[in-house]
C-alpha cells in the first residue's frame, strides 16, 4: 500500500485528522495578458444535494452547469473500477455540461431604475424524471429552470437503395389505383428517409418566473425541505413562495418601520432549516441572527430565538457596527449548528444555545489597523460567503488576494489552513503588481497540477484588495471545495 492509499484509509478511519489540501481542477483559467471581462466574473456557486452537479452564475446573467465525471477508461476500465471499489473516497472531478442565459438586463420604467443581469444566488431543487431543476435570481426576478438531456434526431439518408435498411418495398402492382381514381406509373419500391438518434444534448427551459414581489434587491433564496416552497429575502422583507405558483407570494417577515428615518437594521441573509420545514433563520446588519417558527403566526415579526454576541466592554468605534454586519449564514447538514460570517470573523452557533457562539474564528484579524483604508476603498462592505462540510467538522470562508481559510469546528479542534486559489494552494503568497488580465471562458478545464508544501503569508501589506474570494461551496459528501477567483472556478480536495 502506497502513501496516498494510507492517507485515504487514515482519513476514513479518523475524519477529524487535519486535512492536506490539493489542487484538483480549474475552469476558465486566465492567460497572461488577458483582460478581465466584468460579465464573466463568477457571482454564485452551488453544489446540488447529491454532489454530482455544480452550478455557477456570473455577472453576465449566465448559469453554467458542471457534472461529475464518470468516464470509463477503455484501456484500464476494469482496474479503475476495482480501484474505485477499494477507495470510494476518491476526490470528485467535474466536466462542463451546459450553460444558458438566465437573466438579461432590464429597466424598471416606473422607478427609472436599471436592473442588472448579475446572478445573486443559485439553489438546486429536487430532481424528477432524470431532469435537473434549479432556482436563479438577480436583484428583482427569480426564475425556475428545468435542464434535461434530449436526443437529437437527424435524417441521415433520403431515397436510399432498396437493399439497405430503411427502404420499404411496395406491392409493385402497376395497375394500383390512387384514391382519386388516377393510376400511378409502375414503381418497384417505395423509399422513406432514414432518421437516426444522435447523442443527447442538455436543454434548459424556464418553467416559471417569480417577479414583482420585492422593492429592494434580493440577497437570498432558500429551498424548503418540503420540496414545495422556498423563500426570497431582500433588505426589509422575506417572502414565501410555492414553486407551482408564480403570481402570488406571502410576506412572512417585514422589518420596514413606519418612517424610513427610523430604520436601524436590514436583512442580509436568510436560510431555511435543512430538516424542519417550519423553521428558518435570517441575519441582520447589526450582527444578530433570528430563528423563526412559521407555526407561531402568519407574519413572523417576532422571533423564537435571537442569536447575538454579548457586547464587548470598552469604547466603540465608527466601524464597530459595519464589521459586525453578517454577510452570510449556513445551516449544518443535520440542522443543529449554524455558521455565520461577518467581515472579520466566522462564528459557529448552536441553535439550542442562544447565549453566544460556540466558537469564533478570526479570518483576517490583521486588517483591524487598516479599517480606515478599507472604508475609503469600500472594501469594508465586501460580502464574504461561508460554507460548512457535510460532516459538520470543518468550515471555510474567503479573504483577500484570492485566499480562503479552512477551520476545524469540532470541539477541541485546532485545525486551521490558509490557501490560495491557484494551482498551488499552499505556496507562499508573493504580491505581484496589478496588470490588465483576462480570464478565459469558464468552459476551459485544466486537470490536476503539482502540489508542494509551504505556507501563505498573513501580512496585510501583501494583500490585494481587488482580488477577493467572495464565493465558495463545500461538496455535500466529500472534502472538496469549489471557489471563485474572478472568472476562474478552482476546485480542491483533501
Regions with little confidence, pLDDT below 50 for 5+ residues: 5-13, 71-80, 166-172, 429-458
User: Which CATH-level-2 architecture of the domain at 43-160 and 203-391?
Assistant: 7 Propeller
CATH topology of the domain at 43-160 and 203-391: Methylamine Dehydrogenase, Chain H
Shape, please? globular
Please give the order of strands in the largest beta sheet: 30-1-33-32-31
What proportion of the residues form beta strands (DSSP E)? 35-45%
- Number of helices, where a helix is a run of at least 4 consecutive DSSP H or I residues: 4
Q: Span from first to last CA?
A: 19 Å
Overall residue-averaged pLDDT value: 83
Approximate helicity band: under 10%
Structural class: mainly beta
Q: What is the C-level CATH assignment of the domain at 43-160 and 203-391?
A: Mainly Beta
Family: Belongs to the phosphatase 2A regulatory subunit B family.
Keywords: Repeat, WD repeat
Pfam family, one: WD40
GO molecular function, one term: protein phosphatase regulator activity
